[in-house]
Design brief:
Layout: H1 2-68, E1 73-77, E2 98-102, E3 104-105, E4 108-109, E5 116-126, H2 129-134, E6 137-146, E7 160-170, H3 177-186, H4 188-193, E8 199-211, E9 220-226, E10 234-242, H5 246-252, H6 254-286, H7 301-315
Antiparallel strand pairs: 1-10, 2-9, 3-4, 5-8, 5-10, 6-7, 6-9
């Protein structure tokens, strides 16, 4: 009988050990899964916070760039008008060619206050005998500022005030008869097919360093060619901004500026987030120790004194 009991106890020990090993393995698997789930949740939370901070940093840099950087270039065609009701039949143009150009786009000023601009006029002129005999001619440019809002008409308004004026001269490049004949023979197929034209493109600088007045912003520009014999195919006004300082870096090095700006914003926002999180943790650690004196359910001074008195009565004077 004793041997049978020993055999039964010997058979039960391996099963008990196997059952304990299975329980330990189950506990290990449950612990590992809980830790893995906790790590996944923590990683997702950290990734979400980092992505949110990066998005906010990029948004802040984009808002700063859009509000701080002015328009780099502005180009618009120039259409001239003149009078033809001459009393003398020998003359065709009764006035100088004049154009009124609006310096507004989408009801906003094209020129930014305090920014220096270069204004130039591009003229496409035929290489005709009339223009060759014309010689030098003056180009007068006047910028006006109006108090009545946008100036949409091509004629000068009576409410406009003189803001800036400039006068420049120009002329066609000289080419001899032999040079013109040779160029005509050389480019004859292009001239016959219409691929090229016998013209010259003149670039006349109107303002080299024009700065708009914030109190009298320019609304329109009047360009007048002081010659009634000039021949023009087309004309275009080009405005380019001269950037200096931070604007020069932002415009000429956009990728490096964006990287530095977004990184600076991200570091600053991360520091604020870490400090706020540490402050919240410290507040939660010290919150149970503090005694509240308001009307809440926490222990106030009166309840603490009553509880101390009841404990003294139960313990006795010697215990106290």
């Amino acid at each position: 009988m004793g041997q049978k009991s020993d055999m039964r106890s010997g058979d039960g020990e391996p099963s008990a050990r196997m059952f304990g090993a299975l329980l330990g393995l189950q506990d290990a698997v449950v612990t590992w899964m809980s830790r893995a789930r906790q790590r996944v949740i923590q990683g997702f939370t950290v990734f979400s916070i980092v992505f949110l901070l990066l998005w906010i940093s990029a948004f802040l840099y984009g808002s700063f760039y859009y509000s701080y950087m002015p328009m780099a270039a502005f180009s618009t065609p120039v259409h001239y008008h003149y009078r033809t009701d001459c009393e003398s039949p020998a003359s065709f143009l009764c006035s100088y060619p004049m154009a009124n150009i609006s310096l507004m786009r989408n009801k906003k000023h094209v020129l930014t206050f305090g920014q220096a601009y270069q204004m130039s006029l591009q003229l496409d002129m035929p290489d005709s005998p009339t223009n060759q005999e014309l010689g030098m001619f003056m180009i007068k440019t006047t910028c006006f500022s109006g108090k009545g809002g946008q100036v949409a008409s091509s004629a000068r308004s009576a409410r406009q005030l003189l803001s800036a004026s400039s006068s420049r001269f120009s002329m066609l490049r000289y080419r001899s008869e032999l040079l013109r004949s040779l160029s005509t023979m050389l480019f004859l197929p292009a001239f016959l097919t219409g691929v090229s034209e016998q013209k010259q493109v003149l670039e006349v600088e109107l303002f080299s360093d024009y700065t708009d007045d914030p109190y009298l912003p320019s609304v329109t520009a009047v360009i007048e060619i002081i010659s009634n014999k000039v021949q023009i195919y087309s004309s275009q006004l080009n405005v380019h901004a001269h950037f200096t300082g931070i604007r020069y870096l932002l415009f000429n090095f956009p990728l490096l500026s964006a990287l530095v700006g977004v990184s600076s914003n991200f570091v600053f926002l991360s520091l604020l987030f870490v400090l706020s999180y540490v402050k919240l943790l410290l507040k939660e650690d010290w919150a149970p120790v503090q005694l509240r004196t308001d009307g809440g359910r926490n222990i106030n001074q009166e309840e603490y004194s009553n509880a101390a008195g009841g404990t003294a009565e139960l313990v006795g004077p010697r215990r106290m």
